[in-house]
Description:
By secondary structure, the chain is of the alpha+beta class. It is 64% helix and 12% strand.
Amino acid sequence: MGRLLLIWRLVARDLRRRPGEALVFLLAATAATTSLTLGMATENSVASGYTRTREATSGPDVTAITTSADPFALAGRIADAPGVDTLADPVPGFSTTVRANGRTENTTVEGRERAASAVDRPLVTSGTWVRGGGAVIERGFAQALGVRVGDRVTIGEREYPVVGTAISAATAVYPWGNWAQGPGPSDGGGRIWLTTEDARAAAGNTSPLYLLNIKLSDPEAARGWADSAFIDDLRGQEWVNTRPWQTFLEGDTRLLGSVRPTLVVGGGLLAAASLVTLASLAAVRAPRDRRRAALFKAVGATPRTVAALLLAQYLLLTVVAAAAGVIAGCLTAPALADPSAGLLNTAGPPTAGIVVAATALALLVTSIATLGPVLRTVRSSTADTLADPAHLTAHRPRLTAVTAHLPTPLLIGVRLIARRPGRAVLSAVGPAATMVMVTAVLTFQVSLAAETAQGTSTVQEIRDAVTGQVMLGVTVALGALCVLNTVFVSWSTAVQARRALAVTRTLGATPGQVVAALCVAQLLPAVVATAVGIPIGIGLFAVFSPVVVLPPGSWLAAAAPAVLLAVAALTALPAWLHTRSPAGRVLNAEPA
């Protein structure tokens, strides 16, 4: 217990002394776990939202749509079928068009009584339920039309005020709510409720269809019941189409078919960027941790105790980041999972699989970034660490010959890269990931414009809108994380090369040349990274999109220099701060 208490107190003290480092760690790890949680929780949120909507509205287990002129006879036969628990009265409806705000859409118009039905009781989300002369519009459909309570819509040739909006689980969400189109392919559309009298008047000479909402004693068997119960004796001679509740859930989920790949790929890029951030943070902490570990070992601490102390802070922050990412993802997923606003999208608890996956990702990223520096610190000699001797750099005659005639900033920058090639790889990950997402977003915009010019369905429009929002969000998060990466990698490069750069300055290099050299050390890998990121971004987009139109070369030619310019600007600030200290003070502050 004494050892655990000591480790806890030391970790808490370090967090209080350096809260900025802990905050950066949390932001990096949380970004990766949030994206992963969103990718995994979105489908669960659709199912959860549909289940809550179905419970709140007493949604049917099976719906039967018929063209029968005597739907009550069919309803009587269904009520006597085995497995049926409750059957509501047939609901008349017809398919027509609705106009609002200069937009025309297909829709089903249902005739409903003001009294609540035994099955399928739409939940009013604003305004009131149907009354004479007024229309209630399904909430997602109202959002698409841009109408609210008090606005007016034209159904067929008649105009109605909107008296309310509601949600229901008796059909899939908009644009799959138009159930009254009869036999043949469906064009999709929305759903509007009128009183029965108003619906008959609006239908005119149009023959109505009827919707029968059925509750079963075993809702989970709805698909099998719909296939087995509707035999010819039950159907009669009329056309009947049955839909179990599972088909509505599948339709709602299909709206997000293009979102999950974006979240998965974006999560992978965010994880890579987080890895760079944590590795850079570990590199900045390494000199301090080595001296601290040497002091602990000098007073009798074992290597295991020192390793536990160094890893404890990382593991504690990792657990907090995983929890924050899961919470943020689960709170965000309901809004993303209901793009048409047709469901009750309240947040729910995460599943065990989401918690395990997010924690595993956070631990994996943290372990890869920090385990190596911790092990090197534990294995280092106590005496050598406390003495802090100078380390001889490897002699590279070929590199010396190649760079001898280069300008001073370029010469120093190339040698910094050669001295720590692993750091160059880390500095390239951020620009590469950013360029991948920027290229994918540009390709998406151009491809979307081409699709729109050829004509797209309402379903595809909704998918494209959600995908565009997700891609933009991932790009912004990735860009913010890459800003942190560039600053930290630049700072850690300057910290680890402080003595070599101080010696370079004493030999005649100006502070401006040193700043330029540090910028070169970041820009050269970034140039390669942006060049590689462009084809990767196009390739990833092509994997998940059937339509790929390459963005104009001028767009890519502008995006790549913009990324490089941002890298140069973010590198210059920590490099300039590093050169503010005189070279003599740097050399005298720490013994060689």
